[in-house]
Amino acid sequence: MSAAAKILLIEDDPGITNTLQRVLAEEGYEVAVEKRGDNGLARAATEQFHVVISDLKVPGTNGLEIVRQLHAAQPRLPIILVTAYGTTETAIEAMKFGAYDYLLKPFDFPP
Question: 2 falls in which pLDDT band (50, 70, 90)?
Answer without folding.
Answer: low
